[in-house]
Amino acid sequence: MRIHNKDIKQSWALVIALCTTFSALEIPARLVLGQYTSVSFDVFDWVVTIVFSIDILLHFRYPEWCIGHERGEPVTALRRYGTWMLFGDFLAAMPVHAFLISSPVQLLRLFKLPRVAEYFRQWRYSQVQNWSVLRLVFFVYWLVLSVHWLACGWLALRGIAPGLDLWSSYLFSLYWCVSTLTTVGYGDVIPATNAERLYAMGVMIVGIGVYGYVIGNVATILAGIQPARARYLEHMERLTAFMKYRNIPPGLQRRIRDYFAYIWGKRLGYDEPTVLSELSPSLITEVSLFLKRDIIEKVPFFTGASDELIREIALQMRPVVYTPGDFVFRAGDQGREMYFISKGTLDVLAKDGTTVYTRLTDGDFFGEIALLLNLPRTASVRAVDYCDLYALDKETFERILARYPDFAEHIQQMTKERQERGM
Ligand code: CMP
User: Fold this and answer.
1) Which of 35, 93, 170, 316 is the most exposed place for a label (fewest CB within 10 A)?
2) CA–CA gap between residue 143 and residue 156 (Å, rounded)
3) In whole angstroms, what is the distance from residue 311 CA to residue 400 CA?
4) Phi, psi torsion values for 362, nearest 5 degrees
5) Mutate which of 333, 337, 339, 357 to test ligand 1's pocket (most atoms within 8 Å of Cβ)?
6) Residues forming a β-bridge with 37
7) pTM of the model
8) Does residue 418 have its Cβ closer than 6 Å to ligand 1?
9) For strand 346-349 and strand 380-383, is the pairing parallel, antiparallel, or unpaired?
């Protein structure tokens, strides 16, 4: 099994993110509570130091494995690395824990956090389909870290509450932080000294920011989790307002709603030709062939047709949808397109509108007589259920007939049979 650079990069980024997160949680807690406990994370601190040192070396030797080097070009100059980033990485890798055991200088480790932020950003860009969910997850991540830091700060000011053990004291301070940050503020924990009052004011101000961010962003993030659904509802609302304003009869309103519900439910509101038009020409051909392969496989004539003909037809066919009872066209209309049935059932009706000549289904085609003989439509065609059709316009149809005599012959044969049977 081959291991790709991308896999190594992701795994290494995860290791860095875990080490940084561990340090961001452990160091502030240890600085505050270290004097009360004998629990030591010395080994972990050394592991983190080693991992961060290796990370610096990797940035020079294998930049493609590291966060922050998108294209993975070899980093030969310090300039490429980014002086500030290297400085931050270097500070974070220093084994301060070995010399300054209970000094806040150990917080230099947190200089690695910008790398983690960069990792999250890249992760979000590579997971566009989960963009909103990841945004929410990362927001919660930063929130948890911030609340932990603030709780540690409060604990540093207050010290261990009399009668409470370490864990309960930390929880108590966390409780105060969360209630202050969320602007709930029960007022059951009262700052006693000037330092505590200043700190509490700071946390309250941060709280306003967090609250504002939550109010401003969470609704948007949640709405973004189901973008297709949100767009569908918005579309339906506009449609309903329009139908009400123009007094569209209830029966017709229902059919319009059915139509939209069907195409949005099926295609999530994406318009196939618009999406395709944004691709490169070779991709358009490939995707068109893939999307229309069901119809190409079903129409008996296409099974023996040349690749060029199939490619040309697939490129030119336009998807259309009809709901039960819709007329695709009526007898006597001018013919501008012929149709291939991808899915669904349609009735071919005589001019009287009741006599059914025949029933067409998946893989059949219709509407060719008017194009071939330059006549008005010889019959009406009505959808029996939800129908997915592909339309081929007159100009393309004529061009294809001229270029592919086999196709022309097949269509002419079919036309002759239908004319003899139907009209
Ligand atoms: P056109 O005349 O363009 O429009 C009506 C279409 O119904 C016609 O092309 C044929 O494709 C189709 N059609 C007409 N008569 C029959 C039939 N007897 N059997 C199947 N299809 C038919």
Assistant:
1) 35
2) 20
3) 11
4) -40, 130
5) 357
6) none
7) 0.58
8) yes
9) antiparallel
Owner of token pair 């961010």:
213
Count of residues in the chain: 423
How does pLDDT run along the chain (423 residues), one tens digit per residue? 556 677 788 889 999 999 999 999 999 999 998 877 777 778 899 999 999 999 988 887 777 777 765 544 444 444 555 667 788 899 999 998 888 878 889 999 999 998 899 888 888 877 767 777 888 899 899 999 999 999 999 999 988 888 888 889 999 999 999 999 888 888 888 899 999 999 999 999 999 998 888 888 777 777 776 777 777 888 889 999 999 999 999 989 988 888 888 877 776 566 777 888 888 988 988 888 888 877 777 777 677 778 888 888 888 888 888 989 999 999 999 999 999 998 899 999 998 888 999 999 998 999 999 998 899 999 999 999 999 899 999 999 898 888 888 888 888 888 888 888 765
Locate 91 and state its tokens. Answer: 């500070």
* Ligand 1 binding pocket includes 328 (Cβ within 6 Å): no
Place of tokens 């071919």: 348
With vertex at residue 44, the alpha carbon angle to CA 40 and CA 45, rounded to the nearest 5 degrees, is 85
Give the residues across from 303 on adjacent strands. Answer: none
**Residues 6+ away with beta carbon under 8 Å from 300:** 363
Cβ(346) – ligand 1 distance below 6 Å? no
Nearest residue (by CA) to ligand 1, atom 8, is 367
**Calpha distance 62→69 (Å, rounded):** 10
